[in-house]
Amino acid sequence: MNLDAVTTALVQVGLTLVVIVALVAILEGFLYLLLVRTLKTRLAVPLMLVAPAVVGLAILIVFPLLWELNVSFTKMSLRNFRDPGFLGLGNDMFVGITNYIEVFTLPVLKLTGFWQLFLQTVVWTVINITFHVLGGLALALLLHRPMRGKGIYRALIILPWAIPQVIALLVWRTEYNFEFGAVNQLLGLVGMAPVPWLSDPFWNFAAMIITNVWLGIPFMMVLILGGLQSISAEYYEAAEMDGATSRQSFRAITLPLLRPVLTPAIILGTVWTFNNINVPFFINQNELESSDILVTALFRQAFQYNRYGDAAAFAFVIFAILLVFTVFYVRRTGSLKGAYE
Amino acid sequence: MSGQPVVQPIPIVGTKKRTATTGRRDSFRKRLLIHSILIFACVVAAFPIVRVFSVALRPGNRLLDSNFSLIPDGATLDAFVSVLTKSDLPLWLFNSLVITTGTSFVGLAIAATSAYAFSRFKFPGRGVGLTMLLATQLIPAAMLLVPLYILATQFQMANSFVGMVIALSVTSVPFSIWILKGYYDTVPVELEEAARIDGCSQLEAFWRILLPLSTPALVIVFLFNFLAAWNDYFLARILISKEDLLTWPLGLQRFQAQFQTQWNELAAASIIISIPVVLLFLYSSKWLISGVTAGGVKG
User: Fold this and answer.
1) Is B44 in contact with A239 (Cβ distance < 8 A)?
2) What is the DSSP secondary structure assignment for residue A59, as one 8-state letter?
3) Is the dihedral of CA A19, A22, A24, A26 positive or negative?
4) Residue B132: which residues within 8 A CB-CB, separation 6 or more?
5) How many CB atoms lie within 10 A of CB A144?
6) ipTM confidence
7) DSSP reduced 3-state for B140
8) Cα nearest neighbour of A295 on chain B
9) Residues B33, B39, B42, B44: is their CA dihedral positive or negative?
10) A236, exposed or middle or buried, with CB in 10 Å at 0-12, 13-18, 19+?
């Protein structure tokens, strides 16, 4: 190891941490003087407790997003990489809502337009979540019974979730290789023709979905397993006494009692899948434009084509779609009731 | 608000005939079927990982071999030795480790204190704050990368760990606050009240009573922050390009290009990076689940 590099890392990270701690101390001291000494308010303690998080999130999320909103009204790009000012005041960067209109009217990337990307994202999310929930539910039901080797099964099935995602994805990418990848070799063993996983748009999209289903099932399985464990065995005993078949118990007991776990898990899973940039990015390696979903298209537009103004507008459109979906779904299922007590 | 899912009485269907077969045992064929399905699932889950091991053991002249034997002909540990001594992998791992450890502690400290305020106090902006914290979960990563990249370039923070540490410390805070708030909510307030009657100040009660009782949740949140920072690729990708500052996900990609994809070395490096994380993960997975179900997801 290069000793200089080691020192650089330690010094940079260490100094940053020291500065963060010092800034928090200054902030708290200021708040103490203001709230406790001057205003003498009873709210002093909670406000001082949340202050570091509020300031941190303001610096890292609120300010960048406001700044991005500003950029979305300008023609900032690699060619026009200057300070956009506020809404282009005093310079000619301001383009109004042109970028927002162009998200829908011009191709977002070189060829692919918004509606195709949106459709692909919906297909991607729906197929993935369906398989995650059904696969997770099936495995959880199988594992939720007294049997030998349960711990080993569970540990092995969790593996896809446990290994660092970048590594899992690089491995899958190599296994999709037309000639040498394990997937095509296995297909060959059962007498099927090799599939062009990396070059054909349809199969590339299929490869992304297969990989993400593989990655996502363990999380759902473990969550559902936790839900199953919290259902009292008495219900099943009573149902059995009354002669219910196992299918009847499943529909009348298991499913309704799993809902408090399933509903938030589905919302969270949908948001994560919709926003999943890792899987499409690493399986496709930024090659086929046709395999992009909204978030990878956003990354490509910003960091490959360097169209920052367009990308900023596109980002807010994506965020709005997700916000509308979530508010609608949370309202309908009432799944967050009680969290605010 | 307890962490247990709300259990409501359920009308029981089918009251026709009564059988006294409580605790029925599955037939042999049914058990065989269940075990076969589970074994199949395990094989599918573990297959890519087993492949990586076998590729890592391959000697340099057989990288594109197409057989499936677990231990290849002429198996050798050369690839492991080579990535540890001839490549920058140790440095990449060191960089990742320093950043990840530092940011996890900062993130945990910020989240633990704010979650206490959200759990135990009423203050103006509390409900709005909780909603905003949830809303941050909807922000696509790429959406934040655009302004962070431009701001970092303008404030001269590109190619240094300063920006990475600040950004990674804060990104997990919203989710951490939700998990910890959910956990704190399950700890009875009476314990802290009793301590205050005995003369503790409010913050002493938090420090001496609530925090120790919340150790499982704190461990989970720390691990969660740790894994999130350890696996970060995109932030590092837009902020870091200097060779000495690479973190392992970036370094691993250099491997692909720099050595014309020596599969065995890439595989060996992957294993070295994964082993500690997988062990940590498997060790804590039970906690991870109970913590997430009790606090974050359920509310």
Assistant:
1) no
2) I
3) negative
4) none
5) 16
6) 0.83
7) coil
8) B142
9) negative
10) middle
**3-state helix/strand/coil string of B71-121:** CCCCCCCHHHHHHHHCCCHHHHHHHHHHHHHHHHHHHHHHHHHHHHHHHHC
Q: What average pLDDT values come out for chain B (299 residues) when binned by 10 residues?
A: 37 36 65 91 90 82 63 78 86 91 92 92 88 88 88 83 88 89 86 87 87 84 86 90 88 71 82 84 68 47
- Phi/psi of residue A94, nearest 5 degrees: -65, 130
Q: Mark yes or no for CB contact A275/B141 under 8 Å.
A: yes
Answer for the pair B230, B107: CB distance below 8 angstroms, yes or no: no
- In contact, B259 and B265? CB cutoff 8 Å: yes
Q: Mind listing the pLDDT tens digit for each residue in A40-76?
A: 888 888 889 999 999 999 988 999 999 899 888 888 8
Q: Are the CB atoms for A278 and A168 separated by under 8 Å?
A: no
CB A193 within 8 A of CB A185: no
Ordered alpha helix ranges (H), A176-303: 182-189, 201-229, 233-241, 246-249, 255-274, 278-284, 294-303
pLDDT higher than threshold 80 for residue A86: no
Task: Name the pTM for this structure.
Answer: 0.84
Q: Are B297 and A261 in contact (CB under 8 A)?
A: yes
CA-to-CA dists, residue B242 to A73, A85, B103, B245, angstroms: 32, 30, 21, 6
Subunit contact A223:B277, Cβ cutoff 8 A: no
- Tell me: the pLDDT tens digits for A157-186? 988 988 888 889 988 988 888 887 888 888
Which residues of chain A neighbour B7 with C-beta distances below 8 Å?
230-232, 257
- Quick: pLDDT tens for A219-230: 899 888 888 887
Tokens of A16: 């940053």
Mutate to test the interface with A, among B49, B146, B157 (most CBs of A within 10 A): B146
Long-range contacts of A255-260 (CB under 8 A, 24+ apart): A256/B10, A257/A227, A257/A230, A257/A231, A257/B5, A257/B7, A257/B10, A258/A224, A258/A227, A258/A228, A258/A231, A260/A227, A260/A335, A260/B5, A260/B6, A260/B298
**Distance between CA B78 and CA B23 in Å, rounded?**
55
**Which residue on chain A is closest to B277 by alpha carbon?**
A163
CB contact under 8 A, A175 and B51: yes
Tell me which residue in B88, B106, B143 faces A20 most closely, judged by beta carbons: B106
Closest-approach residue (CA) in chain A for B87: A1
Interface test with B, best of A82, A161, A166 (most B CBs within 10 A): A166
Distance between CA A170 and CA A204 in Å, rounded? 15
Strand partners, A94: A74
Q: Give the integer Cα–Cα distance in Å for A81 and A170.
A: 33
The type of residue at A9 is A
CA pair distance A312, B147, nearest whole angstrom: 8
Report the pLDDT value the prediction gives residue B179, as an integer from 0 to 100.
84
Estimate to the nearest angstrom the gap between the alpha carbon of A212 and the chain centroid.
12
- Residue A325 tokens, joined: 């979906």
Q: What HEC string does A225-260 produce?
A: HHHHHCCCHHHHHHHHHCCCCHHHHHHHHHHHHHHH
What is the end-to-end Cα distance of chain A in Å, rounded? Answer: 53
> What are the start-end ranges of the H helices in chain B?
28-56, 78-85, 89-120, 126-136, 141-154, 161-171, 173-186, 189-197, 202-205, 211-213, 215-230, 234-239, 248-258, 263-291
Q: State which residue of chain A sits closest to B136, comparing Cα positions.
A: A61
Q: Rounded to the nearest 5 degrees, what angle is found at the Cα of A297, between the Cα atoms of A323 and A315?
A: 35
